[in-house]
Amino acid sequence: MRNNLGEIRRMSGGMTQKELAEGAGVTRQTIIAIENGRHNPSVKLALKLARLLAVRVEDLFALTEEDYE
After folding, report:
1. Domain count of the fold of the chain
2. Which distant-in-sequence residues (6+ apart) come within 8 Å of 11 by Cβ?
3. Do the beta carbons of residue 17 and residue 30 sit within 8 Å?
4. Range of the domain at 64
């Protein structure tokens, strides 16, 4: 899965991992794990993250060709 969370977070006004985590109701460690590709967010969390960053979920996360194999 392609994951642009860290890049978009940094580009969207410099929101910190802590600020994003607090807004989404998760821990900073969860945001770190998602950004590092060690954790895939639930649909609910992905929607919250997209709303907080004012982007579409598809801008944050997308399946790659490998995911379809």
Report:
1. 1
2. none
3. no
4. 2-68
